[in-house]
Design brief:
single chain; alpha+beta; SHC Adaptor Protein; SH3 type barrels; 7-stranded mixed β-sheet; 7 helices; SH2 domain; RasGAP_SH3
Length: 363
């Protein structure tokens, strides 16, 4: 079990903790072991396998994006509630996270390491930051007899996920965490893994994995990533959408931004001699429709191409943007004149990483 040592000269107080504390700065080196904790109660061990016990408040209630240690402490002191907490991305070490907590002894900062889509704190592994928060809210003490109680919400909504677009296609190597993708695919970047690799979520499929940095370019922040789907019409009005579906006939469909609920989407479907509309709610990075949650907008469409969206009917024929519109997409896809050089660099980096892994295995 890790121990946190605090106090001034001549005063040493020790409390057992269930996480590794960053003593001076969240980007300082770990000074304590992060071994398995033999003192955990059985129910604490089982908690990570119990989905209901890992339930946490919504991410927008406690995630603050990139934030300095000082700013985090200011926000926590403003609450004056023991048990208050927030999660932030380290401003000194982008891609790493910090759980900042106001407890009986003041404010403590716990480093959370992100690796390949998993999150580690004190030697424990979690599938998401939400699971981590749920665990230290419902299952286990963070400090002795202290748990997360009051989430501190950011003063304004946070949207800090960096987005990139593929400028070249790529086919993954077998038995790796790499992703296969096409030119124009969009990804949400979670963290830089080093050696030229990024850990991302593919917007089109919702799949997580590794991509090579030189195969992508930064994406315009104002662009809706769903523009990659040819059945998504960001610029048509409601009346124009209806006219397009009438011309296309029964079974046709398209998606456009919602007028009544900005940030959400409307699925237009020609069925039973009328145009029906279905709201698709955007919640964080996911999409909600019909009581179901989807990883991406394309997953919504794919489900209702196979399952009935209206009794006796499925989505049949997408109404696609014309070729001129597709060519004018505001996606930053620069002309790639050195494709072979990029692929060669990728192969070299992969071989170097493989050599390093081999050396580690031999040792």
């Amino acid at each position: 079990m890790a121990e946190f040592i605090r106090g001034g000269p001549g005063v040493v107080l020790r409390d057992r903790v269930h996480a590794t504390l960053s003593l001076n700065s969240e980007d300082s080196q770990d000074m304590l072991d992060q071994d398995f904790d033999p003192f955990l109660e059985p129910d604490e061990l089982d908690g990570r396998n119990n989905v209901s016990l890992l339930q946490a408040p919504p991410e927008n209630h406690w995630y603050h994006g990139r934030l300095s240690r000082y700013a985090a402490e200011e926000r926590l002191w403003q609450t004056s509630e023991m048990g208050s907490y927030l999660v932030r991305e380290s401003d000194r070490k982008p891609g790493s996270y910090v759980l900042s907590y106001l407890g009986n002894t003041g404010i403590n900062h716990f480093r959370v390491t992100a690796v390949c889509g998993d999150f580690y704190i004190g030697g424990r592994q979690f599938d998401s930051l939400s699971d981590l928060i749920g665990y230290y809210t419902n299952c286990s003490d963070l400090l002795k007899k202290e748990r997360l109680v009051y989430p501190v919400a950011p003063p304004e909504p946070v949207n800090d996920k960096k987005r990139v677009v593929a400028i070249l296609p790529y086919t993954k190597m077998p038995d790796t965490d790499e992703l296969t993708f096409q030119k124009g695919d969009i990804f949400f970047v979670h963290n830089d893994m080093g050696d030229g690799w990024l850990w991302v979520t593919a917007h089109r499929t919702g799949e997580q994995g590794m991509i090579f940095r030189d195969l992508v370019d930064n994406l315009d922040e104002n662009l809706d990533p769903n523009t990659v789907f040819d059945w998504f019409h960001p610029g048509v009005t409601k009346n124009e959408a209806v006219d397009m579906l009438v011309k296309s006939g029964p079974g046709s469909f398209l998606v456009r931004p919602s007028d009544n609920s900005p940030g959400d989407y409307s699925l237009f479907f020609h069925v039973n001699n009328q145009i029906q509309r279905f709201r698709i709610e955007k919640k964080g990075v996911r999409y909600l429709m019909g009581g179901r949650t989807f990883e991406c907008l394309d997953a919504v469409i794919n489900r209702y191409r196979k399952e009935q969206i209206v009794e006796g009917h499925t989505l049949v024929m997408p109404v696609c943007r014309n070729s001129n519109e597709l060519l004018e997409l505001p996606i930053k896809q620069k002309e790639v004149q050195q494709a072979e050089k990029i692929y060669a660099t990728l192969r070299e980096c992969r071989e170097q990483v493989g050599i390093k892994k081999s050396k580690r295995n031999k040792n």
